[in-house]
Amino acid sequence: MPINSTNKNGQSLLHIEGDMTIYTAADMKNELMTHMAQPCEREVDLSEVSDIDSAGLQILILAKREAEKHGTSLRLTGHSRAVLDVLDMCNLASYFGDPVVLSCNEKKGQ
User: Fold this and answer.
1) Structurally, how many domains does the chain consist of?
2) How many CA atoms lie within 13 A of 94 on its CB side?
């Protein structure tokens, strides 16, 4: 699963689509760490993540630590239902410190 990247005003915007699971973890880790080595602020859009397990969650934690290590920030945005469920189950939403917003459709269970 490729990570789509664009740059805007010195900020790297990353968009992840598909699964963040044990089956995609190795490739995703390598690609994401390449982006983390760049000295800029980062925003990761997770709105199109269809499935995430503990391996995917570990990659997000690693990315957050790498950003802090390099003195930059990493913000998670557009949390999909799958991401919200895992963050809630593991009680990690506050660790990332990003606002978690449900869309109207998600609130209604659609």
Assistant:
1) 1
2) 1
CB 36 within 8 A of CB 63: yes
Nearest Cα residue to 38 out of 63, 1, 60: 63
Q: What is the pLDDT of residues 19-71, one digit of tens each?
A: 999 999 999 999 999 888 888 889 999 999 999 999 999 999 999 999 888 88
pLDDT tens across 61-101, in order? 999 999 888 888 899 999 999 999 999 999 898 888 877 75
Strand order in the sheet with 41-52: 3-8, 11-20, 41-52, 74-77
pLDDT at 101: 59
Q: What is the CATH number of the domain that holds 103?
A: 3.30.750.24
